[in-house]
Amino acid sequence: MLDKNGIAKRIAKELQDGYFVNLGIGIPTLVANYIPQGIDVEFQSENGVLGMGPFPFEGEEDADIINAGKQTITTMPGASFFDSATSFSMIRGQHVDLTILGAMEVSESGDIANWKIPGKMVKGMGGAMDLVASAENIIVAMMHTNKAGKSKLLKKCSLPLTGVNCVKKVVTNLALMEITEDGFKLLERAPGVSVEEIENATEGKLIIEGEIPEMTI
Known about the structure:
Number of helices: 4
Largest sheet: 10 strands, mixed
Oligomer: single chain
Structural class: alpha/beta
Low-confidence stretches: none
CATH topology: Glutaconate Coenzyme A-transferase
Number of domains: 1
């Protein structure tokens, strides 16, 4: 199965030349480290950065240059900084081609819950609500099960929703799936992972058609 970097590497293969891409907190931030050769993309962060690069090497961090998750980042030549009003105008104006988010739960109909667990203190929703309301192409990066081994790919989300019927694809440590009208359609399985293992770890409806290829990372 994949680790977090493996998930990010597989998602990076979904990038297309010329894309403007928003990276959410967590696993999605790692995608900037694995841009395929020959692909030119611009990474946007809702705290006001366009042109994010990979994470800095140890000792080269600049505490004033951070992403939305308050992690230190690098910037590419031509990068720009701006206020939140401008950043959210980009997002709400649908100028972002691809949004990559983490999630605590995803339903078989494409609902996403990624901002709150009732009873636990949270700082706020951040830009998540705007991103899922405005983006037309959302890929979720997440672990297939929680720490207790229970599926995070559900028939219906149990946590407060961030967005409804908005997720297009999900990449987990076990599989790549597409959200369809009928449920999670299995497209690829992680290296060394069987279809049966994916079935056992998925509570929501899993659609399996033909031979499922193994991912190439």
